[in-house]
Amino acid sequence: MKSNFRRHRKFKKKGPNPALFLLLVLGLLFAYLFWYNSENRQLEHLNYSTFLNHVEGGHVDSVEIREQQVQGSFKDGSRCETTVVPSERLWELMR
After folding, report:
1. What is the DSSP letter of 41?
2. Nearest by Cα to 82 from 74, 18, 4
3. What is the pLDDT along the chain (95 residues), one digit of tens a residue?
4. Any residues with CB less than 8 A from the CB of 93 and at least 6 apart, and which?
5. Rounded CA separation 22/24 (Å)
6. Does the predicted TM-score (pTM) go above 0.85?
7. How far apart are alpha carbons 30 and 86 in whole angstroms?
8. Residue ranges covered by each domain of the chain
9. What distances in angstroms separate CA 47 from CA 23, 84, 85, one per listed residue?
């Protein structure tokens, strides 16, 4: 009886350890979340009128618009974001 038990135990040890695989996946997930949060912290949150003043002053290098969320890059390399109210004046300034 004991020899039969040992034979089955040997077959279980083949292949990768599922716990090790799970730890690897969780480690990669936490690394991604840490990187994602550090990227978002570098954004300066501006109100709408301050953002327009920067655009009119020529300090904004590029702008990415997603619905009402706007992310911009200043000429010095820093980044900002704001929530905008869609208007014709804004779209004319962004060109």
Report:
1. H
2. 74
3. 555 555 555 556 667 788 888 999 999 998 888 877 766 567 788 998 898 899 889 999 998 888 889 888 899 888 889 987 777 776 677 66
4. 52, 55, 56
5. 5
6. no
7. 37
8. 1-41, 43-95
9. 42, 9, 11
Q: Which fold has domain 43-95?
A: 3.30.720
Query: In terms of Cα–Cα distance, which of 29, 3, 4, 25 is closest to 16?
Result: 25
Distance CA 77, CA 42 (A): 11
Residue burial 53-67, b: 16+ Cβ < 10 Å; e: rest: ebbeeeebeebeeee
Token couple for 72: 């911009």
- Tell me which amino acid residue 32 is: Y
3 state SS for 66-95: ECCEEEEEECCCCEEEEECCCCHHHHHHHC
